[in-house]
Each structure stands twice: as structure tokens, then as C-alpha cells.
Amino acid sequence: MKKLFYIILFLLGAAGVQPTFSQIERIEPPNWWVGFRQDTLQLLVKAEGLSGYVPAIEQEGVRLIRASKGDSPNYLFLDLVIAKDAQPGTFDIEFVPERGKKLVFSYELKQRERSAEDFDGFDSSDVIYLITPDRFANGDPQNDIVKTLKETDIDRSHDYKRHGGDIQGIIRHLDYIEDMGFTAIWSCPLLTNDMYQSSYHGYAMTDFYEVDPRFGTLEDYKKLSAEAAKKGIKLVMDQVANHCGSEHWWMKDLPFADWINFQKNHELGNEAIRTNHKRTVNQDIYASKSDQRLMEEGWFVSAMPDLNQNNTFMAKYIIQNSIWWVETAQLSGIRQDTYPYPNKEFMSDWAKAIMDEYPNFNIVGEEWSTNPLLIGYWQQGAKNADGYESNLPTTMDFAMQTILVQALTQDENWNTGLIRLYEGLANDFYYPDPKSILFFGDNHDMSRIHTQLDLDVDLTKMAMAYVLSVPRIPQVYYGTEILMEDSEKPGDHGLIRSDFPGGWDGDTVNAFTGEGLSPEQKDMQSYLKKILNYRKGASVVHSGKTKHFGPHEGIYALFRYNDEETLLLVMNKNTASVELSVDRFAEMDIEGKTARNIIADESSTIGEKLIVQPKSALLLSIKN
């Protein structure tokens, strides 16, 4: 049989026909849409020996203007123009070799489900619930193990192995999320991470267009978006423009010699050259070129190759991938990981491309800095000395998060304790739009807020009352509502991302129903639920003005106000109750008005003094 095969090959060759056994391995994006503002599309196409083929398209409204070869012979990049009046449907892309059989791929242009203006981004009227999906709830045990992937272990007793949480688990508990009062979900990445170990966290993507089958399917993700939308819950996607996983499919055949940073070093088999994490080089007028290069081009970790956004094909690939997911999953926002690490000019172009297409959308970038100057630099509209415009609407307030913990754990003095909050919030003069900054007590990369506050329930309540009251977009990490903590190994990522009790069949404790929770946990859950559901309809918190009064003797008072309502937050760090004279707040004109205690759900008339319970936050809604 083998001999006959080679005879056929010889005869075909003698006849001048070169047999081809190639097929199209990938076209990315896998589909596109008509009706975008931007009328160009670049397709990455991969097939064995593809650079020897000539592509052709004959379709009304679609024009092939350029075909570019990669350095690898197995890639072509096709630049298309899609006319404004192009119709949805499928068309053939033909790849014709010099000799032999042509390859044909049927490509689809879809009709958009809604207009660009209807993509409403998250904002200060929302509270975002951050979920690590592998650790939240297992809605479909059938997808726990996928034998075709490299990591097949399921072990809930191991902090760094997969536990089985998935998209269906989130869908199943949307009622809980809605009932608590959250209005948006940010899930850690759900794309395929076909890595040998620690694939659960999702930040080492090996396919930018595929939902990890251990989390579910693309249809599951679209269902999550649709079902959440029915409940008024927005969906924010966690994306990574800086790096991929070392097992990404293209790492075995890189399209260009500069597709990733320090590519030659990688191809020689050398140890990865890692970033120096000197994020200040993006602003530092004294930064050396070597520091700048290592920061931008160094790999985040050895298992995460750094993508080279200076390669124009890579840049286009990342931008189109983001837009594809917005349109496919009908997103309300993107959270962009490790924002200062890629090329900053590219990140400006990336954000602009998305916001130009979706003018009411939102993007939040992660800048893990405790320096407000660095945080403010990345927000659009900042008056930066170097003229840099980020086009990024929202950045993350790690500075205030740090200050919040310090304020609640330090002794009260002229320069420590609550004065830190007072002075920290005063930095808002620097930000172009303070209410569009994301604020949080903790997240998936740091010790839980309850741990940071030494497992003090009262302080944890005070912290969350503050997070939910100030002019910011609040984010709450799953489990904060039931005092989840990591005190056994503070800062350990696997422990920080512990399982949410009740998310697995057979759990003896169920936080979704309250079964098995301690009285303290139930009380905390009720506490947050009351504030969240009040906040959901409180325009005074969403967009009201802010005024605060300097802390005095362990008391700090902050007001949010508009024409209809005043919200008063009083934080008392003392271990005794305090009678607070209302005279000090005379300019707010609250004496004699009716106030509702949001936590106690009781109304009373404000007299000359307010009584604030020990180690607590008083929240009063006062109708003007």
C-alpha cells in the first residue's frame, strides 16, 4: 500500500500536478460583522505552506487590498475593506497555489445584534462583583476534566489545582448576585489556558478566541451575558494584552521573528528574560532606555511570553480580538490586566479603537500603584507633562485601598489613622474624573480585606461602608460578604481564591442559602446586602457631590449630596459610642430633618447630636 502511494505521488509530479494536503488550520478572527465604524479587517490565516498561495475574494462589499506574508511560511495576513453597505452572510476566501489544488474557506460577516451606542459600560452607578470562576461554583461537573488538555487534575484540597468552578455555576447563582445588590460581574479570564499546571487562574491564555472547555463553551458565556442582562447585571471581561501562555498554539510556529519580545532568546532555549516591574518608566523623565526596554519587553513570568505590540500585525490582532469579544458576548466592559506593561502608545491606540467603536462603553486598566500621580496618568483627560493621552476611562485605585487599611489599623494621631482617608480622598483634585476610578477593599491578587484588617469584623464593615459611599466605581471580591479570609497563609494566591461555600454539591456550608454560616457571617452578608440594595437606586451616591470633615478624636464624617438627598457616613473607630454634635456640620443643614438609618432601617429626626455606636459606620439617608 505504501509503495502504491509513492507511485501515485511520482505520476502526479510527472504530470505537472503538485498534490496538496494542506488545509486551513486557523482564521482569526473566526467571523466579523457589518456596520462597524472602522471598515478594515485583518485576518490571520494559518496553513502549511500558505505563503505560497495567492488569496482571492469575489464578494460584493468586501475587498481584499493586501496579503502579507509572515516570516514563517505557514501564515498570511489579509487586509480587507468592508463597505458600509456590505450585507451579512458568508463568502468564500480562495487560496490558489502556483500548482495544485486551491484551498477554500467560507467566512461569515454577521449582522450586529444592537447599535454601538447601546453598549452601556459600567460606571459609578454600579457595584462590580469580582469572581474567580474556578473557585465560585461548579454548575456542570461533566466539564471538570477535559482529557485533551494538559492539566486534568481536580483537587479541591490543593490551592493551586483546578476545583471545577465554571460558567454554569455563575449562571446558576445569578439570582443570588442580583438579590445581594450587585449590578455587574467581572470574572477572571475564561479563555483556554492549556498549561501544565496552575491553569485555574486564567491569565496564561493559549487561545485568545476559545472559552476554556473546563469552564464551558462559547454558548455558555453568551448565555451568561444574556441571563445577567435580564437581571440588569452587566458583564465585564478580563483581558490580557501584555502576554500569553507559553503553551499558546502559535509558540510552536511564530508568525514573525518579532512576534514576541526577546524571541531570539526564547528560540535559543535560554531562560526567559523577565520584566523588571519598574512601571514608573512610563512617566519617569529620568528613566534609562535599558530600564524602559526591560519593563516593556521582559516577560511577566517565565510561563508568560511577552507579546510585541510594536509588531503592527500583533497590534491589530489584539485590538480586533477585544472588539470581537465585545460584540460576541455583548459586554459592558473590559478589565485590562497589567496595563502599564505593554507599549503605552499601543495601549492608547487599543483603548481608542474600542471607545471609538463603542462610545458608551467602559474599560478599566490595572495599575498596581500606591502613587496617585501614576494612577491619574493613565486616566483619559489627564494633563500629562509628556502629552500622553491614554484614552482609558477608568483605572484602579490601589492607592486608596492601601490608605483604607492604614486608616483603620493605625492608632489615631495627627498624621495616622482616619486622617489618611481624609488626605487620600483630597488627592481627587488631581484626577480628571474621580467617580470613574475603580475602588475596592481587596481583589484576587491580594490578601482579603478581612485578613488585612486582622479579622476584625467591625473594621471590615467600616471598610466596605466607605468603599460603597465615596465617589468611585466600587468592586467587591466574592466572599467578602461572608468574611472569607486567608490568615493561615496571608497573601497566598491559592488561598485568597478559596472556594465559595455552597458552590459544590455536598458542601456542608452554603453561603447562597445561608445554611451553616456563622452568626457573624450572616450578619456581614445582611450588612452588605442592605448597603448594596440602597446604593442601587441612590443617585446621590452615583453622581452626587462630596464633602468631608477632618477627622477628630477617632471620628470621620463624609457627605454625598444632591438636590433630593444627602447621604451621611460617619466612621467611629473608638471602642465606645460617641455623641457627635451636629453643629459642626451646620453648612450641610441636616438638623431637624428626617433620616433613615440604612443598616437598622429605622427613621428618626436629627436633633442636636448624633449617637454613633463603637467601632462602626453610621449611614444615614436624609431627604432634602
Give the SSE layout:
Elements: H1 2-14, E1 26-28, E2 32-33, E3 40-46, E4 53-57, E5 62-69, E6 75-82, E7 89-97, E8 103-110, E9 128-131, H2 167-172, H3 174-180, E10 184-187, H4 218-230, E11 234-239, H5 263-267, H6 289-297, H7 312-329, E12 333-336, H8 344-357, E13 363-365, H9 372-377, E14 394-395, H10 398-409, H11 419-426, E15 438-440, H12 449-452, H13 457-467, E16 473-477, H14 493-496, H15 519-536, H16 539-543, E17 545-552, E18 555-561, E19 565-572, E20 578-581, E21 594-597, E22 602-605, E23 609-612, E24 616-623
Parallel strand pairs: 2-8, 9-10, 9-16, 10-11, 11-12, 12-13, 13-14, 15-16
Antiparallel strand pairs: 1-3, 3-6, 4-7, 5-6, 7-8, 17-18, 18-19, 19-24, 20-23, 21-22, 21-24
Helix pairs in contact: 7-8, 10-11, 13-15
Secondary-structure-derived class: alpha/beta
Largest sheet: 8 strands, parallel
Strand elements, count: 24
Q: What is the radius of gyration computed over CA atoms, rounded to a whole number of angstroms?
A: 27 Å
Distance N terminus to C terminus? 91 Å
Silhouette:
elongated
The number of helical elements comes to 16
Please tell me the overall pLDDT.
95
DSSP helix fraction? 10-25%
The strands making up the biggest β-sheet line up spatially as 14-13-12-11-10-9-16-15
> How large a portion of the residues is in β-strands, by DSSP E?
15-25%
Q: Unreliable stretches, pLDDT < 50, 5 or more residues?
A: 1-21
